[in-house]
């Protein structure tokens, strides 16, 4: 992963803010610092609570709430355990395949995957449109990606959320707004972020809050291997290309 060295203490960051810059130095340093810390982790556990706005068939906005428990180890191991109003489902990735299991339906899917978490997320999202919670923040190219996709990135100052001191960063483009809160402590881990769709009249949003971080825990490799429960049925899912090839 991309590495950065920060020689400037975070306490001095507000004093180097350039009011003329579209991508101010405070925000860039904080983003790089967060990416550096995430990139140097050998493993982690965290809980993620998400809120997602969607429109129903009548045009009303409905907010869906989801809880995710995530574990990652090295470059090639990940599990995601998700609860939402539709039930309980899990993902297991072991460096060769991704398995998805629905507890409600008692069925599972096995998808061949590239040999790293980031490449697997990219491939599976592209080919099957499966999204992984908060995946964007773990890309080593995060800062460059934000600069490429947003017109302005600014430092909005310090804040306190649920008694947690945080740094507040905002990014704006013509079609999207991103707000990111990074913990104001030695680790500078992501605490919360929000994406707002400015093109929708309802300004639909996605919001995620990180809780219960565990850094570099000793995670048994066995938890990344999927074992089908008794009676579970393997099913197939079509890729985006397969769907496009189907006759109308």
From TrEMBL:
Superkingdom assignment: Bacteria
Keyword entries, A-Z: Signal
Pfam families: DUF2092
InterPro entries reported in the protein's UniProt record: DUF2092 (IPR019207), LolA/LolB/LppX (IPR029046)
Segments traversing the membrane: none
Leader sequence residues: 1-21
Gene3D superfamilies: Lipoprotein localisation LolA/LolB/LppX
Protein name (Swiss-Prot/TrEMBL): DUF2092 domain-containing protein
Organism: Fulvivirga sedimenti
């Amino acid at each position: 992963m991309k590495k950065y060295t920060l020689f400037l203490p975070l306490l001095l960051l507000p004093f180097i803010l350039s009011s003329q810059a579209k991508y101010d130095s405070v925000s860039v340093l904080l983003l790089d610092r967060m990416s550096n810390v995430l990139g140097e982790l050998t493993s982690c556990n965290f809980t993620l609570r998400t809120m997602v706005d969607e429109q129903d068939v009548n045009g009303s906005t409905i907010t869906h709430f989801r809880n995710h428990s995530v574990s990652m180890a090295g470059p090639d191991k990940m599990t995601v355990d998700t609860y939402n109003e539709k039930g309980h489902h899990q993902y297991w990735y072991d460096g060769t395949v991704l398995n998805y299991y629905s507890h409600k339906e008692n069925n599972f899917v096995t998808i061949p995957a590239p040999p790293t978490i980031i490449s697997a997320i990219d491939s599976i999202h592209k080919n099957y449109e499966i999204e992984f919670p908060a995946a964007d923040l773990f890309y080593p190219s995060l800062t460059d990606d934000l600069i490429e996709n947003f017109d302005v990135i600014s430092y909005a100052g310090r804040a306190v959320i649920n008694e947690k001191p945080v740094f507040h960063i905002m990014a704006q483009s013509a079609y999207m707004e991103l707000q990111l809160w990074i913990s104001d402590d030695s680790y500078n881990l992501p605490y919360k972020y929000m994406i707002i769709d400015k093109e929708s009249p309802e300004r639909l949003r996605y919001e995620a809050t990180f809780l219960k971080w565990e850094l570099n825990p000793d995670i048994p490799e066995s938890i990344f291997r999927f074992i089908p429960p008794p009676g579970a049925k393997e099913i197939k899912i079509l890729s985006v290309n397969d769907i496009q090839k189907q006759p109308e």
